[in-house]
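SEQUENCE-TO-STRUCTURE ENTRY
===========================
What this section holds: a protein sequence and its matching fold, both as plain text.
Question of interest: how does this chain fold, as expressed in backbone structure tokens?
***
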Amino acid sequence: MNARDIMTTSVVTVTPETSIEEAARLMLDRRISGLPVISGDGMVVGIVTEGDLLRRTEVGTEHHHSTWYGLLFGPGRLAQDYARARARKVGEVMTTSMISAAPETPLSEVVRLMEAHRVKRLPVIERGRLVGIISRANLVGALAEFLAGQHDQALSDDEIRRAVLAEIDRQPWGPRESVTVKVSGGVVELDGAIIDERERVALRVAAENLPGVKSVVDHLVWVEPLSGAVIPEPS
């Protein structure tokens, strides 16, 4: 799936001339945490977020810098912080170095960008113009839709068994030689030995992810790899 498959296309936007008061009210009324900023010719020039409005003189949250701060960063940084804390227009506080995606950006890359830059949303831009926006809620919605669709694709017992074994084979942690899989009526039984308790959870997840699986019964035994001693399963 790509960005265009899940992005929201009806995006609430502002301009650089929009007042801070109006931008704040839009965020509250629409329950959104960021607004793309569009210039008069329709080009994306920035984004204003809740974070841009946190340090404000009106509510006493502006930065109070020490003398050392001014000496270290210079008067330009002090002037910037002063302006942002008292600005009246979006263009004076917006972030211009945006992280964005293109319509064809894979969702894996969308998530990587969100994590790497610690942002909650990505504008989707094509030829400099805003065509949509992706938020974490869009990604969760895509997951919910995918999981709901799995209910209509139930596999047979034999298909489930072969799929579980194939997944174990594909994974570098997969204990293929020491684990057996049986399936009856959609119930998966895992038996055999594992050398790390975390393998137990991964094996259960591998089975639970398959459409048609009703439950997973775990008979796995945790064996200490050097001594061969059987470790009792945690209660």
